[in-house]
Amino acid sequence: MNTIKSIENIFSPPTPHMVGDGFRVHNFFPGNGLMSIDRMSPFFLMDYGAKFHFPPSDKPRGVGVHPHRGFETVTLAYKGKVAHHDSAGNSGIIGEGDVQWMTAASGVLHKEYHEKEWSKMGGDFQMVQLWVNLPAKYKMSFPKYQALERSQFGQFHLADNGGVAEVIAGKYKNVIGPAKTFTPIEMYTVRLNKGGKADFTIPENFNTSCVVIDGNIQVNSNLAKTNQLVLFNNDGTDFYLEAIEDAIVLILSGEPISEPIESYGPFLMNTKQEIQQAYNDLYSGKFGYLED
Ligand code: MN
Predict the structure, then answer these.
(1) How far, in Å, from the CA of 110 to the mean position of ligand 1?
(2) Is residue 69 in a domain?
(3) Does the pLDDT at position 244 exceed 90?
(4) CA of 290 relative to ligand 1 center, distance in Å
(5) pLDDT tens figures, 164-201
(6) What are phi and psi of 35, to 5 degrees?
(7) What is the mean predicted confidence (pLDDT) over 199-210?
(8) pTM for this one?
(9) What range defines the domain where residue 219 resides?
């Protein structure tokens, strides 16, 4: 029998901070004490860049070369354009609605900037970056990169001209998303027209939240405003949205990874020894090379 996934909390965005000079982000987790560090496992971190205007700049703003190991960085652009380069030789540019899914795994160096031509124009910038944890058995697998364009996403058209659900990962009402994931993940961008409705059925044990990217909505009949994060209890399977005005909502859900977490700086491992090893490998050049 299906039961309602009740709402555990609705969080307003914490005070923003800058990552490099290009990403003005609200860290919803794990750093703000809003929830325990494994509450949204397999998602370890969410930096949310609420809509913010960047003036034109000849030098693209962003964050320079830095390493990662043990997880994936997933970046969703909602306004503006993001460019990525990494030491595994992958690069890409994502625009509005696109997603870059970088598997750092055993280790990469990468850099993330506003795209050059977009920077020259400036404009509104809005994005989400997630760190998706990997189970121990995949932490040291080969790095890879998935460029996921909005045009490739599975689309489910909601009833009564309610809008569209773009399926990035997982499956929504038999529409499958293109992202290849290491553990079961559901990720959709839902674009609702005013009055549009969408309902979701996701296993009870999956950690589930949604972020209101634009507009105001009702979630299980509770008001959720632009830039708020709605966290669900693990007490049921179903929840539903209704748009008070035109709205965009990011749905995030995944099966928890039940393993010890040891995180330090850009590394996310299971033990302190593995963190130390990551630094040893970084300093001995095992993460490769990437030009600044
Ligand atoms: Mn990074």
Answers:
(1) 6
(2) yes
(3) yes
(4) 13
(5) 999 999 999 999 999 999 999 999 999 999 999 999 99
(6) -155, 160
(7) 98
(8) 0.97
(9) 7-254
